[in-house]
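Predict both folds.
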Amino acid sequence: MWTVVWMTLVVLLVSALLVLSWAVRARNMQIWLGSYLRRRRPASVDGPVHVMFCFVDHFEPAWGKVDLATQRARVDRWCRDYRKLAMAHRDADGRSPQHTFFYPEEEYLEEHLEKIAALCADGYGEIEIHLHHDDDTADHFNATIRRFNELLHARHGALPRDPVTGQLRFGFIHGNWSLDNSRADGRWCGINNELILLRELGCYADFTLPSAPSDTQTRMVNAIYYATDDPLRPKSHDTGEPVRVGGSASGDLMIVQGPLGLNWRERRFGLIPRIENADVRRACPPTPARIDDWVRTGIHVEGRPEWVFVKVHTHGTQERDMDTLLGERAHAMHTHLETRYNDGGQYVLHYVTAREVYNIIKAAEAGCEGNPDSYRDHVLPPPPGIAAARAGQGRQGP
């Protein structure tokens, strides 16, 4: 009898392990799970924790290959409803929520960018660069980014110039998550030296990650780091050198990651945790529990744990998700941020754009302390459209 019991237990245990192994590999968790489990908890701090909340959007009006009327309706809804949403909320600095629109070069239409640029000039966000490409070459990539940089800057007042070199600077999100040719099958990029090319073109940081459950996800998680490109192999940003207080820029490109972890509250089959990858949409709304997890992840510059960066992402123009991103769910998200993480004692909330995230990171690296609101424009100024609007208003904006 006992033999049968033990054999049954062994079979059950082996079956559970096989199911677990299948679940891990089916979602490519073997890439990053070890790093996640070995992570160090953020150090405790004296005084308030400053929470930088950054919402980046893979903003694709033509998603689904829709007609112009549908694209126009998507952009118009964003420009109308986001104003209403943002006007109802403020951070510790009196700033409205900031939305960073990573606009895809291959979907460019002047009328869409005119509307989004006007929204940004009114104080609700900034425009950066998104790109989908496949089987590309270095020459074509360079020409594409240079052309789009100049177009955004000259026609839409986007992208700042470096005050030292005069070069246009931009943040980047790679389409299909495939930065530096990082898909195992080699699709949706084609360039193994993409980090070098981005640096040379003026990219100040990449904001693509996390990309789990895609196989493009890196081993390094929940980090802000410098990646060094190996032009002979893909996915050179798999690991890198953490940005730290007193350090300096190294390698080729700064990688700014959002929170990645395991969600044990919403287990599949009651056993397997879901992946928390900071994606916000109808199927995974920004609940208070998720927001708390994002903050607890504690992504920061090493040596400055009291400045926490929470970067979340979405694909904002998909109709099924717009009510979540522009309606009551979004209001509830900001209300929770403003009540739980803006008491002035334990927490101070700052709504920031991707460019401001970079500036505050560089300020931390330089040893700056105190209120990060002072460093929103630390090394890179606002783009010209926003700078002109601020000068005309005589204030920072909503």
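Second protein follows, with its predicted structure tokens after the sequence.
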Amino acid sequence: MIPVRVLAQVVVVVSGLLGVATVAFVGRERLGRLPRAAPERIRAVGPHLAALGALLVLNSVVRDLGPQFSWIVGWNVTGTIHAIEGPFVAHLQSALARPALTAYFSMIYVYGYVFLLVFPLLAYFAHDDDGPLRRTIVAYGVNYGLGVVCYLAFIAYGPRNLMPELVESLLFTTYPKYQLLTSEVNSNTNVFPSLHTSLSVTVALLAAQTRDVYRGWFYVSTLVASSVVVATMYLGIHWGTDVAAGAVLAVLSVWVADRYVSE
């Protein structure tokens, strides 16, 4: 069970980031028009939100029961991934590891990632066009849906699990209080592809589509998404192969969302 203090800390920090970003990027004028537009916007995206909620529930079930099922029908690709890239993550970590960077990437992985996923829902809800919001919800759904399939089909341990003598679990050794938090949303065998990467890159790609309206958000999302991608490897959680597969999943998810919303 997640310690209440840790969960409360995440809620407080992310809420603060959301408040600042909303004022800075959405603006008072657009927020002022929101009460009149909100009912229609809710009706337009309600079915999409319901479908996304169902996928999140399914993802939770798979997280709890999936590993046992995967050991029966899945393919253990850990050795294949290691054969492809070898000690790449170990070299990356040893080359970059500094206390300041560990603190930065840990905060990005825990707080920045949650902020990155939640803010677009708020910002696009306030957008004059409901298209960006629908694209975001659909893209998130594709990410989680295909992620569930991959986690059932593939068994993969991260570099910190396979090579503990070479790759340190920097997030948990530096901030052990986050171990229970991350274990609630993932399993040691669910690393291929990296959903942290796929969802972060998805947000950045969608932000690029709305950069004429939310230019500041485009720059911030690109920075945070890039940091999340590096953090997954720097902290020893994901392989470079997981990250590459996550990026491909992000492009596919945005493509599906664009096709779906334009129809």
